[in-house]
Amino acid sequence: MTDRSRRRWLTSVGAASLAVGLPRCDRDEPVVAVDAGPTDEWTRVRWRLFEGAKIIVARDGRGLFAMSAVCPHQGCIVGPTPGRVCVPPEDGATSETPTLCCACHSSSFDGDGLAISGPAAPRRLAHWRVLVEGGRVRVMVNDPVAVAFRAVE
Ligand code: FES
Q1: Angle at the Cα of 44 (from 43 to 50), degrees rounded to 5?
Q2: Which CATH class, in words, describes the domain spanning 31-144?
Q3: What residues line ligand 1, using a CB cutoff of 6 Å?
Q4: Over the stretch 39-71, which tens digit does the pLDDT of each residue have?
Q5: Tens of pLDDT along 123-142?
Q6: What is the Cα–Cα distance from 141 to 153, expressed in whole angstroms?
Q7: Any idea where the domains of the chain sit in the sequence?
Q8: Is the sign of the CA dihedral 14, 18, 21, 27 positive or negative?
């Protein structure tokens, strides 16, 4: 193998490895826009589960953000829990505190979606892009963003 053909082979292997390493959501799942309500509603609510869309939308001091509500352990729904007891979340469940849990096997998550206890630890909930447009909050499900991403009202 000449240096030139070896370089080409290494380049193609590197490109193939990079493509395989991409998260599944980047390649296979279509981006779906989910309406999360009017922006003025988010001045009161801090954490809310949208069970049908399998997302958790939240607001902190830096802005609005959203995470997948699909538990990275075995796919149950993670939701905000107002108390110390982890119970199966109901659609629309809200909380003032960033305490999230999965009742299937009692994993708990911090406010950034990192599993801090239970069998889901130390995996993290995926974060999705949030847009604030025309007075409404929209979550772009399957459009991954960094954990620190916030949409500003
Ligand atoms: S599916 Fe969530 S902890 Fe097992």
Answers
A1: 100
A2: mainly beta
A3: 71, 73-74, 76, 102, 104-105, 107, 118-120
A4: 999 987 789 999 999 999 999 889 999 999 999
A5: 999 999 999 999 999 999 99
A6: 19
A7: 1-28, 31-144
A8: negative
